[in-house]
Design brief:
CATH architecture: 4-Layer Sandwich
Order of helices and strands: EEEHHEHEEEEEEEEEHHEE
Number of domains: 1
CATH class: Alpha Beta
Shape: globular
CATH topology: Purple Acid Phosphatase, chain A, domain 2
Radius of gyration: 17 Å
Helix content: 10-25%
């Protein structure tokens, strides 16, 4: 999907006028958490994440990307894990080949408890009429009149698409786009490669502090799935549940 404001690229959103690429929840360290539980996978989370981001950068054309914004939950464990810090630093050093360090923006998610010596977390980031947040907390400044678009992650939205007779079903990461407090709200899927995400009716928590948006509000959002060469719109999210 491409509009005058943005383009949906794989699991990310790109704003060509601003040169901003926004990336959702990475959950670096999930592989290590499984390893600690005795679950060994032939999988290198950092390397796969780097390859996927590299592919997106090349798809957009790297000279058009001026800033990269991570929308929180960059790491997985709620506590401190030294290996996650190593993984995050490795990823950030890789990205510095394509954008300047000062233009890599980290937004703090509810999983992000560690601080990095060379990078600082932001609660939200605003450029022009676009606000970028994680999505678990609402900040007054993103509701200012000049803000037209809010971009968040946090929810890990996914949708199950079935054939006409509902025999074959497949889950896809999806974007949800709709209205929120007079703004356009774009909820992007997690970038995390191991898990597709969750349908809202599976585990959405309607408790205070979980998200800035309620399940009821999201049911009216439009659903978009990015394919290889096309973005597919599947109508209202509620009609797909």
């Amino acid at each position: 999907m491409s509009t005058n404001d943005y383009t949906l690229v794989s699991k990310t959103i790109f704003f060509p006028k601003q040169g901003i690429l926004a990336i959702g929840d990475l959950h670096l360290g999930y592989e290590k958490m499984l390893h600690n539980k005795g679950i060994i996978l032939p999988f290198n989370q950092v390397e796969i994440t780097k390859k996927e981001i590299y592919s997106i950068i090349n798809c957009i054309e790297k000279d058009k990307i001026k800033k990269i914004i991570f929308l929180g939950d960059i790491k997985h464990n709620f506590g401190f894990e030294k290996s996650e810090e190593f993984d995050l630093n490795e990823l950030l050093e890789f990205l510095e080949k394509y954008v300047q360090r000062k233009n890599i923006i980290l937004i703090r998610g509810n999983h992000d408890k560690i601080s990095l010596s060379d990078y600082g977390y932001k609660d939200c980031y605003i450029e022009g009429n676009i606000a970028f947040i994680h999505g678990d907390k609402l900040y007054r400044k993103i509701l200012e009149k000049e803000i037209k678009i809010i971009v968040m992650s946090h929810i890990h939205p996914a949708v199950v698409i079935s054939d006409g007779v509902k025999i074959k079903k497949e889950k896809f990461k999806c974007f949800l786009i709709g209205k929120f407090k007079g703004k356009k709200l774009v909820i992007i899927p997690s970038f995390f490669p191991l898990v597709h995400g969750s349908e809202i009716n599976e585990n959405y928590k309607n408790k205070p502090g979980f998200s800035i948006i309620t399940k009821k509000q999201m049911l009216n959002f439009r659903t978009y799935v990015v394919g290889k060469n096309k973005v597919y719109e599947f109508g209202r999210y509620n009609d797909l549940l």
